[in-house]
Hints:
The complex is a heterotrimer of chains A (195), B (156) and C (368). By secondary structure, chain A is α/β, with parallel strands linked by helices. Chain A contains 5 helices and 9 strands. Chain A has a single domain (9-193), classed as Bacterial phosphonate metabolism protein PhnH (Rossmann fold, 3-Layer(aba) Sandwich). Chain A has a 6-stranded mixed beta sheet with strand order 1-8-7-4-3-2. Chain A has a 3-stranded antiparallel beta sheet with strand order 6-5-9. Chain B has one domain (12-130). Chain B contains 5 helices and 3 strands; from the N terminus they run H-H-E-E-E-H-H-H. Chain B has a 3-stranded antiparallel beta sheet with strand order 1-2-3. The longest helix of chain B has 19 residues, at 124-142. Chain C is α+β, with helices and mostly antiparallel strands and 368 residues long. Chain C folds into 3 domains: 9-82, no CATH class; 96-121 and 150-170 and 180-326, no CATH class; 335-368. Chain C has 12 helices and 6 strands. In chain C, strand 4 and strand 5 (246-263) form a beta hairpin. The relative contact order of chain C is 0.13. Chain A binds chain C through residues 2, 56-58, 75, 78-79, 82, and chain C through 86-89, 183, 239-241. Strand 1 (44-60) of chain B pairs parallel with strand 2 (87-90) of chain C.
Amino acid sequence: xxxxxxxxxxxxxxxxxxxxxxxxxxxxxxxxxxxxxxxxxxxxxxxxxxxxxxxxxxxxxxxxxxxxxxxxxxxxxxxxxxxxxxxxxxxxxxxxxxxxxxxxxxxxxxxxxxxxxxxxxxxxxxxxxxxxxxxxxxxxxxxxxxxxxxxxxxxxxxxxxxxxxxxxxxxxxxxxxxxxxxxxxxxxxxxxxxx
Amino acid sequence: xxxxxxxxxxxxxxxxxxxxxxxxxxxxxxxxxxxxxxxxxxxxxxxxxxxxxxxxxxxxxxxxxxxxxxxxxxxxxxxxxxxxxxxxxxxxxxxxxxxxxxxxxxxxxxxxxxxxxxxxxxxxxxxxxxxxxxxxxxxxxxxxxxxxxxxxxxxx
Amino acid sequence: xxxxxxxxxxxxxxxxxxxxxxxxxxxxxxxxxxxxxxxxxxxxxxxxxxxxxxxxxxxxxxxxxxxxxxxxxxxxxxxxxxxxxxxxxxxxxxxxxxxxxxxxxxxxxxxxxxxxxxxxxxxxxxxxxxxxxxxxxxxxxxxxxxxxxxxxxxxxxxxxxxxxxxxxxxxxxxxxxxxxxxxxxxxxxxxxxxxxxxxxxxxxxxxxxxxxxxxxxxxxxxxxxxxxxxxxxxxxxxxxxxxxxxxxxxxxxxxxxxxxxxxxxxxxxxxxxxxxxxxxxxxxxxxxxxxxxxxxxxxxxxxxxxxxxxxxxxxxxxxxxxxxxxxxxxxxxxxxxxxxxxxxxxxxxxxxxxxxxxxxxxxxxxxx
Lengths: 195, 156, 368
């Protein structure tokens, strides 16, 4: 039974796009994202909104184990976005991660190429919480001074992986972070430390 | 473009469904409105609002070789779900969203074996019209086929 | 360097209003309808679809009305509209072998299965202007005849030659998707599929002239029309959610197979080589020219020297798109005031220097 997509495809997709764009432009600032979607579990409404707004027939998608285990999720994404699914994280334009604690090492995804750094994978994580003012320390483009963001759950060694990712700039992956009703961004240009 | 391979529609049923889809694509909006009004269709909800987009038409080099991208065709698609039944789909050339939605409803109705015969009967007039126009085109084309006469060389 | 110029808004608004009125013309003359353009200027519509690279006859007809009949302007409108639509995917490759033939001719063989079928063509008209057309009148209905038993069974002429190995086969389909120059910019050398895409959407006049040039010796390929066929072909598409090929309807296409100079080597006996052209609608001249240029651009592949423009793929592909061409040519109308001021000053200074130089020569000569 196929669940419906955006009620108003044009405006809802634009709103989701705008929220993601603002989140990536100002890392550390958390944007509201309330798409009014009821996608098949375990896909979250926020993951679905980002997928419907950004993914299409030209962008191969990698699903983590939790999402890949539910055939309805693949059917929903194929129907609404036409996206081809891939098993290989290194060939994915987008990676949808329902269980961030089990996220594969960032190095396994596509880092882009020197001629086309933008062809890297964009990871979209479904976190339990994103809280401002505490947790990881962020500096870099788009951040006035510094910012703090607490994310749960995270995989072990995440900050170390982000440091490696940052060192590869301009190559590297970008992260779209979602939580219930929220979206935040960690582009490859942000420097992330524990304290 | 890669597509995810799925089980193709099984033989007879699949071919018949495609034939009805082809007829709806060829028919006019008025044809489909007439067909639907002859059937008592339950309410239908949009699975995805009808939308117009593009399909890249691919030719083959030499007519039978490796594909190349010829140019896009405008296509309108609709997906509905009947209140009491299956999902119906339609994909047509052109930009007529209303027509695509009507065809999607007919597709959903057709998939119900109990309703199938009535749907096909309701589409009969459209089928006859399409067939008649094809036959006429074929006859007109046939009149322009060259009949080479071999001039007899005679002893005059 | 472009100068931002203000103050033209009122003039521009008025220019648009004048354009709309001029487009309409004398109100006592009946207005052209899109349906009339679509049906009665069909070949123009076909050309706009082919070069606009979008098969939608009503849209092309509307674009022509809006563009006051200017083909490149209409192509511009169609291409711009196309950018607003999402792409669902690629069709199943079109099967021209299964075409419902409206016209099918061959210059290489007289007798063919399926026959020589003339269809609606200007080829045998005497090109005398028909003043009777100026008075709208009834048109005689077309003649009809019973289709022969083998009507519609039109095997390819190239297949007939291939049976005896006389002609090279088409490059095989290895399953890899074709490149798309609307997604990635062209990188040279471009493969044949990408070249055909560029030629298909290229300007008919430019490609016609290049094809003509090859016939006059600028990259001669010794062509024969193996076959031209015009007719409707079914288009199918496999949607992700259905997983089977859905018939979308039928499009009219023109296909041209050129049979060209044969080629052999020490290792292989000679075979005819081929050129291929395909267009939307009944764009026959375009399909033929495209096939001539397709063959010419294969010069390197076939070990022929690249000596003339039609064989130079960078020259052909960079310049065949009418929109790109008109974009750069027509941009010259934009204000270039500052650039030109610089030119004016330079030329005045050089003239002053020239005058001084010739004055001093004169004075010297006078002194002598």
